[in-house]
Amino acid sequence: GNEALYALNQSEGAAFHISDKKMKDMSVFLHKREGYRILPASTSGLIALLQMHTNNEMINDRYVVVLTGKY
After folding, report:
1. Phi-psi bin for 25: left (phi > 0), alpha (psi -120 to 50), beta?
2. Is the dihedral of CA 48, 52, 55, 60 positive or negative?
3. Nearest Cα to 52, choosing from 67, 41, 63?
4. pLDDT band of 64, cuts 50, 70, 90
5. Which of 34, 44, 45, 63 could pair with 18 in a Cys bridge, judged by C-beta atoms 3.0 to 4.6 Å apart?
6. 71, pLDDT greater than 80
């Protein structure tokens, strides 16, 4: 709640609304494309990163997104 908003403002960070459908679609895409079975909720960081790049092209650097898989 308030603590998260405070931290977001203090760090000049960003927050994104990622729909359940987008997370499910990304999970299916990663399974079909890469063979990974990723939990849909864990794709939200990847979707946000891609959205940030689409909105404002990011410099060529290293970015890390943690995805949680399942068997």
Report:
1. alpha
2. negative
3. 63
4. very high
5. 44
6. no
Amino acid at 28: V
CB 38 within 8 A of CB 68: yes
CA–CA separation, 50 and 16 (whole Å): 11
- Six-digit token string for 29: 């895409």
Estimate to the nearest angstrom the gap between the alpha carbon of 62 and the chain centroid.
Answer: 15
pLDDT at 59: 86
Instruction: Kindly report, residue by residue over 26-57, the tens digit of the pLDDT.
Output: 999 999 999 999 999 999 999 999 998 888 88
